[in-house]
Prior knowledge:
By secondary structure, the chain is of the alpha+beta class. The protein has helices at residues 2-5, 39-56, 61-68, 77-81, 98-109, 111-114, 165-177, 205-232, 257-267, 321-340, 398-410, 421-432, and strands spanning 121-129, 139-146, 152-156, 184-188, 239-242, 245-248, 254-256, 274-280, 288-297, 304-314, 370-375.
Amino acid sequence: xxxxxxxxxxxxxxxxxxxxxxxxxxxxxxxxxxxxxxxxxxxxxxxxxxxxxxxxxxxxxxxxxxxxxxxxxxxxxxxxxxxxxxxxxxxxxxxxxxxxxxxxxxxxxxxxxxxxxxxxxxxxxxxxxxxxxxxxxxxxxxxxxxxxxxxxxxxxxxxxxxxxxxxxxxxxxxxxxxxxxxxxxxxxxxxxxxxxxxxxxxxxxxxxxxxxxxxxxxxxxxxxxxxxxxxxxxxxxxxxxxxxxxxxxxxxxxxxxxxxxxxxxxxxxxxxxxxxxxxxxxxxxxxxxxxxxxxxxxxxxxxxxxxxxxxxxxxxxxxxxxxxxxxxxxxxxxxxxxxxxxxxxxxxxxxxxxxxxxxxxxxxxxxxxxxxxxxxxxxxxxxxxxxxxxxxxxxxxxxxxxxxxxxxxxxxxxxxxxxxxxxxxxxxxxxxx
Length: 433
């Protein structure tokens, strides 16, 4: 389902669309969900095909994409027809800065100067979209509790698997409450004590869990202002939380959160101040990206060297720009590995023959090319503070972008990844014949 549902809406100006999925039994290891699953394979086929079509039509690959890609306030029938294992839900794109991503990415890679030379060096591109959770399925919940010293406990089921979600969700809570993030203590993913969350998958945490956290923080803020208003004898509508203080609109009265915490816990109107919220998305706003890569192909050895990689991305408003860059770089490193050397090899009995990190090679820091990440100025109205997802989308770009760059460099089409030297040489010999 994801092979079609995550890819086909990207080109919504195309009327003739067919998606066929075959289920095949094998004795190989069972396939499971992995970052970008389905979309990674779909974009490999789709974006390679778009370049071939552009070549036959004598169009620049950039121009054919600009003409056909989806835009803000547009939709696609694919959204409703294909979902995650079932029928999808209709949606209209409320934020899309893909045009900006294409233009800025092309500028950064110096596309006009480098494309079409066929001199052993080439540039290629791919455009992408993904999703932010699964609409009407994924649910996240959060509880925020005020402590007696004016700090807060954020209880969330969302699991930080290295993505920085604990930091992101603390930032969202702090922003909504009007306090510094250092005052938030995060307790996550303990099924005995924390609220339910669907899990760290489907690029859902910032959007699904983040919206739950923001709503919980908003509910808590209302309670705090009500209790502070009663103590200060001021209507809650005339109060706000600012710089870790509760302040009247005219500035004449104020109370620190520490003071409120002590009073409400030990002295006046004693109670535990806390609030909870849940969120289920009615839609799944897609992030967008344009990837550009420059490669050098050695015709004697078949070795492909990635010289420069540019990713221009629209993830809505980034809650934490440095974490956005980290997510992007990590995904691209994984994707380049897919493109150039990551491969599961099996013998006749279905046993994997390279199931170790000596023979199954992955990218290291020394293998990384020059890499530039550009973040669009975007805002998703349904997301927490304008945010969309970023976790998966960028793993989908390297395979098609590198394949298109190799075609630009030496004129061959590569349809099986990884693009090993042996496969490159075989394709080059095919041209010579």
